Amino acid sequence: MTATMREIEFRDAVREAMSEEMRRDMRVMLIGEEVAQYNGAYKVSRGMLDEFGPRRVIDTPISESGFAGMAIGAAMLGLRPIVEFMSWSFSLVAADPILNNAPKMLYMSGGQYGCPVVFRGNDGAGGQLGSTHSWAVEGLFSNVPGLKMAIPSNPADAKGLMKTAIRDDDPVFFLESERLLSLKGDVPEGEHLIPFGQARVARVGRDCTLVSFGRPVHFCLEAADALAREGIDCEVLDMRTIRPLDAGAIVRSVRRTGACVVVDQSWSFGSPGSEVAALVHRECFDDLDNHVHRVHSADVPAPYSYDLEQEYLPNTRRVCEAVRACLYRA
After folding, report:
1. pLDDT (tens digit, 9 = 90+) per residue, 184-225?
2. Annotated catalytic residue 133
3. Cα dihedral 122, 125, 127, 133 sign
4. Of 34, 133, 281, 283, catalytic
5. Phi and psi based region of residue 222 (left: phi greater than 0; alpha: psi -120 to 50; beta: remaining)
6. 12-21, 119-128, 285-294: which has the minimum mean pLDDT?
7. I want to staple 76 with a disulfide (CB 3.0 to 4.6 A). Which of 89, 113, 116, 282 is the partner?
8. Please, which residues have CB within 8 angstroms of residue 127's CB and are 6 or more apart in sequence?
9. Which H/E stretch holds residue 140?
């Protein structure tokens, strides 16, 4: 039976996923700064305190290391916490529990203790928040084995990936973009899960493969529209998750198009984009007509100035320039 679709905002899709899973499983709980009485700093948890009460929607002190560690302990003892970081920039003070404990617990306990916890919050430059509040942490955190990482680009994927994340027995880092929270899109009612490691072909094309995830997917789609007017037909892959990464989808696409541009809001050094480029060069070397081109955030701290921030981030113009260079049309 076809699911009923409604147009809702990204933030509402995340809340719907969390609420549905909390109704389904009494072990699921939400904790974080201002998630309860204030309805979330970005109103993602609006109404959840009223429905689930203060034992399952819990306001915490301003101590990311403390409440992240508490959630890991709760997960080890059978609960399934969702931890909201108001910003992933603030997760840096919780690096020890979320990177040194959660991903390693199953391994170090010889399989005795898992860590089914979801860490979620806003990632990347959020619009004039300055250098210390604009971290895109995927380049830092995806390096660690034992965790999974989902980065949705649209409301339907936000719901489907969040429900999958909550049910997963491994720690999941769920990266949202503040700039996408008000984005509207069609989302299925009720049960809607998207498997991890399954990319979405956001646009079919024949000349060049654009590989991206999260907010930069929209820059790729805008660039593909602009390049189509020049006779360049781009395929856009939305990876959805980068831990695990759907390597097969990338390889199949690049073998058809013969060209690849990776668009990643991380800094370029040691980034997911670096890993994708290495993968393509290894698996598609004989299919490529040029090396993989990459579009990243500039290798500087995020600026506060609005105009500088737009230049700092990947954008439609820079994606178009990379595709033309990759196809020798610069």
Report:
1. 999 999 999 999 999 999 999 999 999 999 999 999 999 999
2. yes
3. positive
4. 133
5. alpha
6. 119-128
7. 113
8. 178, 179, 306, 309
9. helix 138-141
Catalytic residue among 9, 16, 21, 64, which?
A: 64
Q: For residue 53, what are the contacts with CB-CB under 8 A and spacing of at least 6?
A: none
Cα separation, 2 vs 297, in Å, equals 40
Q: What is the 3-state secondary structure (H, E, C) of 188-230?
A: ECCCCCCCCCCCEEEECCCCEEEEECCCHHHHHHHHHHHHHCC
pTM above 0.85, yes or no: yes
Confidence of residue 2 (pLDDT cuts 50, 70, 90): low
Question: 3-state SS of 27-50?
Answer: CEEEEECCCCCCCCCCCCCCCHHH
Counting residues of the chain whose pLDDT is more than 90, the rounded percentage is: 97
Structural fold of domain 200-326: Rossmann fold (3.40.50)
Candidates 3.90.650.10, 1.10.3720.10, 3.40.50.970, 3.40.50.150; correct CATH number of 5-188?
3.40.50.970
CB 31 within 8 A of CB 204: no
Q: Active site includes 293?
A: no
